[in-house]
Amino acid sequence: MEYDRLIGEWLANGRRMPGESLEGIFIAELVQSYWQFAQGYYVKNGKKTDELPGLKVALRFLVERYGNALANDFGPLALEAVRNRFIDAGHCRKYCNQNTGRIKRMFKWGVSRELVDVAVHQALATVSGLRKGKSKANETKPVLPVDDAIVDLTVK
Q: What is the pTM of this model?
């Protein structure tokens, strides 16, 4: 029974023992493990959801800058630096916030798998989203309702 429990924990933890080399996991390794999880999780009715392409973008920006850093060394200032890269790439404020949230969610997942220290996720949770008019990020134009004349022509 003990063997089965240990093997179960080892498999559930990405073929690592819980708590094993907590300081030693690199962000690129965390991203790889999370991406494998996400491809199975973000599926609805047998089809991949729209979350995966956005997640891929967020993780690519993260790995470009911090892939060789230890996951436990990643903090709020590093997350803000990645978020600034989203802004520099021309992403709108809402998309920057979504991608920042995706990175936070990955670290939360890493904590749940005992790959990342809980203090990392707690620290990242302190990074607030960009507020309208308070950042350099582009704002999207509001989506206006369709004119009634166009709706009438479409219905006919």
A: 0.77
